[in-house]
């Protein structure tokens, strides 16, 4: 009897040791803005052996990935990867939105006290939960060209978020994380002086972000002890310019991105050991509209003016309920109503919303109108739109522009071409004992956070209700 008991204890001990050894010491969570599967496949003959080819031949690949909300942009996507939930819970509906108090556009990471911070992100991230579980000893960083990507991926409890300052062209941090920039942070400008401000493209700086990632790992000794660390990196596969020869431009983008990934993976594996590092790679899942001219090809199109529509709507409501500024503001494709005035007129918001919907749905260029009440009803047919809606900051009315039409705001420079085209992209897990496998079952990006959390044996972010992928 004692002999069998000893064998059982030995077996359990062996299993526990194996599980302990497979826990990654470092997780490198890489989100690549606008990465597309079709481009990876098209340019694969030009890739080296250390980047995409290594990931696609040795990684666990989910090639039918998607987001469970719409619309998607860089900020909402990265926040969803980090939190494992949708904007309906984490509150980051886009890179910018209209501030209800000032009725002016505000960045998702604007912070008067610290310049920029994650205070508008309403839920915890993977990094936050890792900090909690390790009593603050785990090291967590977010690196990107843009501040929203760096901060939202890093979360609230991170050691730091680092990005390229749009005015100086140098690496920048926030006093939210640390009072002074770390001494090892490079001081030389990253962005050429002629490309400062919003004119520079993140895609041009993948190499610099890769170098910074390797610097951070070495400077902070990430992944060298038994406590897991997390490095969030945001790269870009977005077009650098609206070139007439789009194929040639994207070929250059993807071949340079492949080299950057190869250098990053090879150096980290050499320094930390392949079995001790878990790489996670995915896309922000959207493609930036290029505002192409459909008219020259006789494709149905048109221009929808949100400012003119808002003015017409106000005239319409004034004719029904009496003079007043019923439309308080408008931004992007959303309209904000004056709730105080509606209350003074002694009519219900429900009635006004229905009136607005009845008028707007008849407008040329509008394919659908979603009121806040309709979105909050939670019907399955509009679940993705509801997941992208956050009541405290979203507008009362969301207008869906017909595909191919261009939305224009003549007051605040804002325009985009509507598209509902599907963007294929993968979720890839590589390293840390992961076996090569290709999985065609549809999955969603909110499952990344619980999968990483399970791998490093911590609780998933506090608004994450999705199951791990494995």
Question: Unreliable segments (pLDDT under 50, ≥5 consecutive)?
Answer: 13-20
The number of strands is 22
Structural class: alpha/beta
Strand order across the largest sheet:
10-9-8-11-1-12-20-2-21
Q: What separation lies between the terminal Cα atoms?
A: 37 Å
As a percent range, the share of strand residues is 15-25%
Largest β-sheet summary:
9 strands, mixed
Q: What's the overall average pLDDT, rounded?
A: 92
GO molecular function: alkaline phosphatase activity
Organism: Prevotella sp. GTC17262
Protein name: Alkaline phosphatase family protein
Pfam families: Phosphodiest (PF01663)
Provide a compact summary of the structure.
With 470 residues, this protein is α/β, with parallel strands linked by helices. Helices cover 34% and strands 19% of the residues.
Would you kindly provide a written description of the structure presented here, covering whatever features stand out?
This protein is α/β, with parallel strands linked by helices and 470 residues long. It is 34% helix and 19% strand. It has 15 helices and 22 strands. The strands form 6 sheets. A 9-stranded mixed β-sheet has the order 10-9-8-11-1-12-20-2-21, with helices on both faces. Helix 4 runs parallel beside helix 7 (147-154). It is globular. It starts with a helix and ends in a 15-residue tail after the last helix. It comes from Prevotella sp. GTC17262. GO terms for molecular function: alkaline phosphatase activity.
